[in-house]
Amino acid sequence: MLVGAAVAFALPEASPLVPEHDGGDSTWAWLYLAAAVAAFAAYLAGLWALRGPGRPARRAVVALACAVQLLPLAGPVLLSTDVYTYWDYARISTEHGGNPYEDVPSDFPDDPAFPLMGSYWYDTTSVYGPGFTLASEGHAAVVGESPNAAAWAYKALAALAMVALVLLAARLSPRPAFAAAFVGWNPLLALHFAGGGHNDAWMMAFVLAALALAASGRRALAGASWAAAIAVKWVPVLFLPLRLLEARRTGRRIDHRGLAVTAAVLVAIATWRYGIGWAGAAGPLVGNLAEDRAWYAVPVRISHLGLPEGAVAAVFAVAFAVAYLWLLREAWRGRARLALTAGLLLVATSWLVPWYAVWAVPLAAVEEDRPARFLALAMSAYLLRDAVPL
Fold first, then answer.
1. Cβ contacts of residue 194 below 8 Å, gap of 6+?
2. How confident is the model at residue 118 (pLDDT cuts 50, 70, 90)?
3. Start-to-end Cα distance in the chain
């Protein structure tokens, strides 16, 4: 109910929660934030209740989780223009014969996606992996020139990815009801995926699918899923070495064929379609970080205490590198702590937006790692305020 109320506060034209609205009445933003905070408090209370004795009804927990994650589909695009940015990059290729890894959106200012996308990306080539870019071209071909269809399709795909994460978490965890609630009852994820349509949910659905496939003995398919996850965004590259070290230590069989074949196919198609420009997809984002950092990134917030921002960012980067070496050691000892890796990355990165919480939450749901769970919940709570126009 509270998630539904938060979505409803975006509907009035005066609400600044929807990028296309011209209104600037901050009352609606405050009401949204109050509903989101109250929903998060209810989420924490629900998780606490599920920790108690007894066996909660798994189907009821999963059904409620799916309802929470699908509910924002009934509302408009919330708090972000990323769905239009995805659409614009795809149309550079499908409609204008360009290359999203070489041409920038401002080269095609008459495209219907251009005035709707974030101005931050006007002069930036695509920062997304080639797998996602290829998929977004298919999306662009289906939706045509309809902004509403383009936005709703990305919202629906993100919401379905969140449902997949709920089901996969329940499958992987020894406490399926708790894991499903940990992912699916999280209002931050619902509001930014079914609400905002971000592709990070795709990436994490492939990661959890890889874990589930490996657990069921389908190792080649697990490798293919790892390759697909990395082809959406680079983040799973950090997880894969930990899993490989854990497997070597514990004697678990590994089948590299699925990863190698899928990666080879994706590389071949991407190179045929985009040349070698896709290999430097993260470059524009790294370059922009040197000039403009995310307000809610922890290093940036600390630098506001009067410390040099570049120095603080460097300290956090070094700290994460040291922590990652320790995590590699933990994996070599037989425990790949993927959730903690994701949580520490959220703390250390200088580019942090609220939907990045999905990097940590599903992994924390399926791993029995109390510090990782605490960190995933803490970062979710911390990011509730981020992106709200107040």
1. 69, 70, 71, 72, 73, 155, 156, 158, 159, 162
2. confident
3. 23
315 has pLDDT over 90? yes
Structure letter (DSSP) for residue 236: G
Distances (CA, A) of 301 to 158, 298, 304, 327: 29, 5, 5, 26
Please give the Cα distance from 259 to 206 (Å, whole number): 12
pTM over 0.85: yes
Q: Which two tokens stand for residue 135?
A: 């998929």
Q: Which residue has the tokens 């580019």?
A: 351
pLDDT digit string, tens, across residues 38-49: 999 999 999 999
Q: Give the number of other Cβ atoms within 10 Å of residue 238's Cβ.
A: 17
**How many angstroms separate the Cα of 42 from the Cα of each of 130, 170, 230?**
39, 20, 34
- At 254, the pLDDT band (50, 70, 90 cuts) reads confident
Q: Give the HSE-up count for residue 163: Cα atoms under 13 Å, Cβ half-sphere.
A: 16
Do 90 and 243 meet the contact criterion of CB atoms below 8 Å apart? no
| pLDDT, mean of residues 163-178 | 95
CB 113 within 8 A of CB 64: no
Tokens representing 56 are 């909660």
Provide the CA 310 distance to its chain's centre, in angstroms. 26
Average pLDDT, the chain: 92
Distance in angstroms (rounded) separating the CA atoms of residues 233 and 38: 32
Report d(CA 328, CA 103) in Å as an integer. Answer: 38
Residue 199: closest CA among 136, 289, 110: 136
Residue matched to tokens 């978490």: 169
**366 close to 211: Cβ distance less than 8 angstroms:** yes
Binning the chain into helix, strand and coil, the percentages to the nearest 5 are: 70, 0, 30
| All residues at 6 or more sequence positions from 239 whose CB lies less than 8 Å from its CB, including other chains | 207, 336, 338, 341, 342
The answer to whether 137 touches 89, Cβ cutoff 8 Å, is: no
Where helices occur in 51-146 by DSSP H, the ranges are 58-70, 82-94, 130-143
